[in-house]
């Protein structure tokens, strides 16, 4: 299980969400078995989705983050529920290219909050992959300035962040998300708002797959019946397979 916490500065000037997503990214790696480069990229994306999802207000809310690049990996998609439990998918999981260790995903998240939410923010994400492609450390943090925060807060925050190590180094050394928050908000005396465990969690079910099959229409379902005895439908996010016999598909047509 991963761990996510949210804290607020004692003076109410900013909030910080920090997460240790090592176990979550490791589960993603087990399911998709991507190359090291893709593990690092998709791991960052689902970590970002977890942080963003944890800020949603309603239990049934979810957030989808899509990285639509034109590189060999294709599109990367991450979805998180309102409790910070993410899942992810990549079009091509096996890509071997040199990896920019700092990554641009954190910069994209920062830009999103600045442009779309009109909230100044600082985001850091990291995934450290072992030579055997297992995940050694993964996590991130997001600092958001609250209304009323002045230039003095920004300067104080910049001074604090100058001393902060990369997030994977902090997690690898054994630091908890709470300790990461106190490190990045040094001098702000942060108070804990929320602490929760997170996991890689897919919401697929046979009922959802049946609804998807119904949506493609009678003609397409009939073609599937004519062409093969059993139809297999796989979930992109968790690789679970659902099998439908011809009788199953006829029932859906009815």
Give me a quick take on this structure.
The protein is α+β, with helices and mostly antiparallel strands and 254 residues long. The protein is built from nine helices and ten strands.
Walk me through this protein's architecture.
- The structure is a single chain.
- The chain is α+β, with helices and mostly antiparallel strands and 254 residues long.
- It is built from 9 helices and 10 strands.
- The strands form 3 sheets. The protein has a 5-stranded antiparallel sheet, with helices on both faces. A 3-stranded antiparallel sheet has the order 3-4-5.
- β1 and β2 form a beta hairpin.
- α1 packs across α2 and α8 (218-227) runs antiparallel to α9.
- The protein is elongated, with a radius of gyration of 21 Å.
- The mean pLDDT is 92.
H/E series: EEHHEEEHEEHHHEHHEEH
Tally of separate helices: 9
| Termini Cα gap | 43 Å
Q: What about the largest sheet?
A: 5 strands, antiparallel
Strand content: 25-35%
Radius of gyration: 21 Å
Helix content: 25-40%
Strand order, largest beta sheet: 6-7-2-1-8
Q: Taking all residues together, what is the mean pLDDT?
A: 92
Question: What are its keywords?
Answer:
254 residues, alpha+beta, five-stranded antiparallel beta sheet, three-stranded antiparallel beta sheet, 9 helices, 10 strands, 28% strand
């Amino acid at each position: 299980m991963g761990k996510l916490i949210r804290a607020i500065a004692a003076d109410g000037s900013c909030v910080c969400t920090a997460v240790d997503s090592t176990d979550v990214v490791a589960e993603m790696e087990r399911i998709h078995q991507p190359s090291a480069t893709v593990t690092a990229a998709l791991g960052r994306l689902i970590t970002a989705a977890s942080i963003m999802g944890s800020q949603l207000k309603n239990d049934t809310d979810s957030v989808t983050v899509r990285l639509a690049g034109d590189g060999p990996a294709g599109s990367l998609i991450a979805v998180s529920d309102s409790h910070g439990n993410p899942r992810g998918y990549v079009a091509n999981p096996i890509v071997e290219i040199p990896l920019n260790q700092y990554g641009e995903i954190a910069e994209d998240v920062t830009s999103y909050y600045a442009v779309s939410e009109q909230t100044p923010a600082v985001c850091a994400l990291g995934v450290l992959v072992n030579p055997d492609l297992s995940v050694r450390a993964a996590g991130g943090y997001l600092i958001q300035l609250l209304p009323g925060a002045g230039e003095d807060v920004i300067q104080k925050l910049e001074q604090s962040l100058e001393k902060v190590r990369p997030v994977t180094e902090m997690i690898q050394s054994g630091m908890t998300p709470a300790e990461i928050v106190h490190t990045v908000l040094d001098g702000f005396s942060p108070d804990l708002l929320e602490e929760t465990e997170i996991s890689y969690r897919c919401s697929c079910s046979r009922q959802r797959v049946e609804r998807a099959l119904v949506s493609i229409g009678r003609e397409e379902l009939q073609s599937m019946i004519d062409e093969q005895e059993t139809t297999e439908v796989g979930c992109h996010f968790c690789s679970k397979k659902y099998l439908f016999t011809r009788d199953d598909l006829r029932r859906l047509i009815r």
